């Protein structure tokens, strides 16, 4: 897989270099359909390809306009994740992802928001350069109607941290102010800003998406309400439906391949059937995916 990721990254860079949006979007979409994970594409393909665009810009070989276009094309690719990846069962937890004041690099926060969404979080992504006072008001349950998301379980402060001088002060005072919120969200500082000493005042620091997702997973284990049986069945049904449609199969085709009755498949997809483990294994095998893809979705990876 490492070789495939590297080759995808090379192709992505070529597409970005050539100004070929269709090629970039197709590349990512097809990789997702082949089963390359959204996390792997983000860390191993999109970010390094864009870093190469940045290097060419720094050397004067690409214009600022071309670099802006490449970033927007990556945003389009990332927005394609939702239609290709089967989302995990909603956790009933809310995250707010924002960049610090002065921070213009919001792509990392945007990608992380999409990865959280796929893992079942409800996510509010606020984007670049969020004024600290407004961000606090947005997540403070006492400040209705300024705080539309209640309660916030996870606050993610993301960025590259190039606006260091003011950014460090803002981060320290934001982290201090969040301590006073009740209920208080868990706070993760993500991206390069996580290396600042001030970030140690947060509950979690993550330079990479993988570390960030591990932290979010811990938070969800501590805070998520137990998923009820009907919610599990509805989630399994949704995922089966999406996996079947991605393969262009009818319910009858899946029934035949898994040696189950078509009405059983139909009830499963509607979340109306409590399946045996044996039936789930047969359906997963017929679809060519793992049991955890069907039962848990991407959070199982
Ligand atoms: C796109 C871009 C911009 C865009 C940002 C648009 C946007 N909407 O995001 C714009 C044009 C606004 C911009 C502006 C600037 N940029 Co710029 N930019 C880049 C570029 C090309 C890509 C950055 C990016 O988004 N990468 C994609 C993300 C996903 O990858 P990543 O940043 O490597 O992050 C990884 C991890 O940190 C982690 N991660 C990232 N975010 C998060 C968030 C969370 C929550 C978690 C858990 C993890 C995580 O995941 C990624 C994958 O592993 C880089 C090149 C590079 N080498 O990074 C230059 C780069 C960062 N920029 C640079 C510069 C100099 C600037 C400007 C100062 C230019 C100027 N003179 O105005 C300004 C600063 C603006 C500011 N105040 O912030 C330099 C920084 C050099 C330095 N270290 O000092 C770079 C390295 C370009 C270069 N080669 O010189 N930039």
Give the number of domains.
3
The CATH topology of the largest domain corresponds to Rossmann fold
Which descriptor suits the 3D outline?
flat
In CATH, the homologous superfamily of the largest domain goes by the name: Cobalamin-binding domain
Q: What percent of residues adopt helix (DSSP H or I)? A: 55-70%
pLDDT averaged residue by residue: 91
Instruction: Compute the number of helices.
Output: 14
Q: Give the N-terminus to C-terminus distance in angstroms.
A: 15 Å
Strand % is 5-15%
Main sheet attributes: strand count, strand direction, barrel closure: 5 strands, parallel
| CATH class (first level) name of the largest domain | Alpha Beta
**Computed CA radius of gyration, to the nearest angstrom:** 21 Å
Provide the succession of SSEs: HHHHHEHEHEHEEHHHHHH
CATH architecture of the largest domain: 3-Layer(aba) Sandwich
Describe the structure.
The chain has 301 residues and is an alpha/beta fold. The protein folds into three domains: 2-84, Methionine synthase domain (Methyltransferase, Methionine Synthase (B12-binding Domains), Chain A, domain 1); 94-223, Rossmann fold; 229-300, lambda repressor-like DNA-binding domains (434 Repressor (Amino-terminal Domain), Orthogonal Bundle), CATH 1.10.260. It has helices at residues 2-18, 21-33, 38-58, 64-79, 81-84, 107-118, 132-139, 164-178, 209-223, 229-246, 251-258, 262-269, 277-287, 291-295, and strands spanning 94-99, 122-127, 154-158, 186-190, 204-206. It has a five-stranded parallel sheet with strand order 2-1-3-4-5, sandwiched between helices. α6 (107-118) links the parallel β1 (94-99) and β2 (122-127). α1 (2-18) packs antiparallel against α2 (21-33), α3 (38-58) packs antiparallel against α4 and α4 packs parallel to α6 (107-118). The model has no long low-confidence stretch (mean pLDDT 91).
């Amino acid at each position: 897989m490492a070789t495939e990721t590297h080759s995808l990254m090379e192709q992505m860079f070529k597409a970005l270099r050539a100004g070929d949006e269709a090629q970039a979007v197709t590349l990512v979409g097809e990789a997702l359909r082949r089963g390359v994970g959204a996390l792997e594409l983000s860390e191993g393909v999109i970010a390094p390809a864009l870093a190469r665009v940045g290097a060419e810009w720094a050397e004067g070989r690409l214009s600022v306009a071309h670099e802006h276009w490449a970033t927007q094309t990556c945003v389009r690719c990332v927005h394609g994740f939702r239609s290709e990846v089967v989302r995990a069962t909603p956790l009933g937890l809310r995250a707010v992802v924002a960049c610090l004041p002065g921070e213009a690099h919001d792509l990392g926060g945007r990608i992380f928001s999409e990865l959280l969404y796929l893992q079942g979080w409800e996510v509010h992504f606020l984007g670049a350069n969020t004024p600290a006072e407004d961000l606090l008001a947005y997540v403070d349950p006492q400040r209705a109607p300024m705080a539309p998301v209640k309660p916030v379980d996870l606050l993610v402060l993301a960025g590259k941290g190039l606006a260091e001088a003011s950014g460090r002060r803002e981060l320290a005072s934001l982290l201090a102010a969040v301590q006073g919120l009740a209920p208080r969200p868990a706070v993760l500082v993500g991206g390069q800003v996580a290396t600042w000493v001030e970030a140690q005042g947060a509950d979690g620091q993550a330079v990479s998406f993988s570390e960030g997702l591990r932290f979010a997973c811990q938070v969800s284990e501590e805070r998520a309400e137990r998923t009820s049986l009907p919610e599990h069945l509805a989630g399994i049904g949704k995922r089966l439906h999406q996996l079947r449609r991605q393969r262009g199969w009818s319910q009858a085709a899946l029934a035949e391949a898994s040696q189950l009755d078509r009405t059983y498949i139909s009830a499963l997809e509607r979340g109306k059937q409590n399946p045996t483990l044996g039936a789930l294994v047969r359906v997963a095998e017929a679809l060519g995916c793992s049991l955890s893809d069907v039962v848990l979705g991407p959070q199982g990876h």
